[in-house]
Structure formats: C-alpha cells, structure tokens
Write a structure and sequence with these properties.
The chain is an alpha/beta fold. The chain has 2 domains: 147 residues, 3-Layer(aba) Sandwich (Rossmann fold), CATH 3.40.50.620; 120 residues, Rossmann fold. Strands 4-5-10-9-6-7-8 form a 7-stranded mixed β-sheet, with helices on both faces. Strand 6, helix 5 and strand 7 form a beta-alpha-beta unit. Helix 1 crosses helix 2. The longest helix has 28 residues. About 7% of the residues have low confidence.
C-alpha cells in the first residue's frame, strides 16, 4: 500500500481527515502526505495579468510550510501518544504549491505515484456536509483515483466491514476487485449492497444478483464477500438505512457524473441521508481497476 495523500486547508474538517488518514495508514503500514494549495496574489478581477511579486510568493510559501510542519508534528505526536509500545508509526510528510486543489492533488498523485486521496467533509447539516466546496467537487468529477471522504465528526475505528453500493452493472466488477485489494490489507469483509424496491426481489433479479456475485468471487479469490438486497423506495434511502443499521465502517461506490452521487455532492437530494451518515465514503471513478 502506498502513501495516502491528504489535502488540507487547515480547517477542523481537514485536521480530522488527517487524523483519520493517519490511523488508516497505521493499519496499512504506510504513511500520509499532507498537501496545501495556495494562490498568489489573492484572486481579484484581472489577477491573472498581474505579475506576482517574489516576496509575496516567498512569504506565503514560508508561512504555509511552517503551518504544515506544525500540523505534521502534531499528528505524529498524537499518534505516538495513543499507540502501544513497539507499534508501527506512520511518517507524515508534506508539501505545498500554487494552484487549485484539483490541479495540485492530481500533480502530487502523478509525481508521487500514489493511489488514494483522503479529505474532509464539512457543513453543519443537510447534504452540504458532503464536501468542502466547488474545487473539491471538481476533483471528484475529474479524479482518476479513489477519494475517501471523511465526515468532520468521524473517528477512526478498525475497519471490519466495507459496503459497496452497486446497481449490479458489470462495469462495477473491476472496481470491486480493486476494493478487494484494500480489504485484504485490513482483513475486512465486503458487503455488496443493491438498494432497490421490491420488484428486485423477483426470481430473475435474484439470479442476476447471484451471477454478479459469482463473477466477483471467482476472479477476486477473496472469501469475505457477501451480498445483500436492501429494499428501499430509492437509492438514497437505502444507503441511509445501510449506513445506520448495516454495521459498516466505510461506504463505497462508483461516481458517475450524472448519477445520484453527483446530485448528492451538490446538495440537490433529500436531506435525510446526510443527517444520518457519519461514516467515511470511498468514491471510485468509473472502471477503476488498479490495486491498492
């Protein structure tokens, strides 16, 4: 498993994401890399045509580096104080650069050859809590790698069960195989969850689900994969119920730009789900097949 990239804006949500990612890295015997995106000068109309004074860049870079160094040291100290003697201690590295969150994260992922981003969700209620802002939504839309979204109130617990929400599309099979590579590290169960109404309880759909599960388990070679049909009036209510009652530690799914997750991230769907989902959400790009 490679180092986990953690974008930070030094907010409480981002700090919590760093703590969660550090504990996950500890379980995976890897490290985390903090990254901060900044801009010089402050955005104003026509700023793109303004020359950047070198002292402005240098002073901001110096301050950001000091802030990252402080945060890195704080996270490492907290982890060591809460760890048993002789346990593995992840390394916290850091970097910063000028640009947008999307561009800096993608550059870091390419340069460092990483394959997982962990970042915080914010907001005090409703679906606004599902993300930090438009730049973060842009990252999800464009990311060719998985992104783990961590709620501000989430605390790390040993990951024993990961749910994967699917519509039984065959294009999800390769994504699930990628998820299996993560589950192996953690010795975690994978619950394949199909949220749909009662019509999917018919014999035909039962056979479809069995064939889908057989396709996964035959190629994955992993015994801890299970299937559950979650009967619900729609996907959001089904995932709401699953997150609340399914005893899962991470919910995962594929992000299709025009599917319900896109609406979820922009806050256009029901408020009920967001008020109950307090677990991390692992978002895959369509067709993702790389191993962790």
């Amino acid at each position: 498993m490679k180092t986990i990239l953690v974008p930070t804006d030094f907010s409480a949500a981002a700090d919590n994401a760093g703590r969660y990612a550090l504990q996950l890295a500890k379980s995976l015997h890897t490290g985390i890399r903090l990254v901060h995106a900044f801009k010089v000068p402050i955005e104003v109309p026509g700023a793109a045509q303004v020359a950047w004074p070198l002292e402005d860049y240098s002073s901001i870079k110096k301050q950001v580096t000091e802030d990252l160094s402080f945060l890195s040291g704080k996270l490492e100290q907290e982890e060591r104080e809460g760890s048993a003697t002789g346990s593995y201690h992840p390394v916290v590295s850091y970097d910063s650069a000028v640009g947008t969150v999307k561009d800096i994260v993608r550059n870091q992922m390419d340069e460092q050859q990483l394959n997982l981003v962990a970042m915080g969700m914010s907001g005090e209620g409703g679906l606004s809590r599902f993300f930090l802002g438009s730049q973060s939504r842009d990252l999800i839309d464009a990311a060719p790698f998985p992104v783990l979204l961590i709620p501000k109130e989430a605390h790390f617990v040993p990951i024993r069960k990961i749910a994967f929400a699917t519509d039984l599309s065959l294009e999800d099979v390769e994504v699930i195989h990628s998820l299996v590579s993560l589950a192996r590290y953690l010795n975690a169960e994978i619950l394949i969850a199909h949220c749909a109404d009662e019509k999917y309880a018919s014999d035909g759909h039962v056979r479809e689900a069995k064939d889908f599960l057989a396709e996964i388990t035959e190629k994955a070679g992993y015994d801890h994969i299970y299937y559950r049909h979650v009967k619900s009036i729609d996907v959001e209510h089904g995932l709401d119920w699953l997150s609340e009652h399914g005893q899962i530690d991470i919910l995962s799914m594929v992000h299709h730009p025009r599917h319900f997750l896109a609406k979820l991230l922009t806050g256009s769907h029901t408020q009920a789900m967001a008020r109950h989902v307090h677990i991390p959400l692992l978002v895959f790009p369509p067709g993702y097949c790389a191993a962790f």
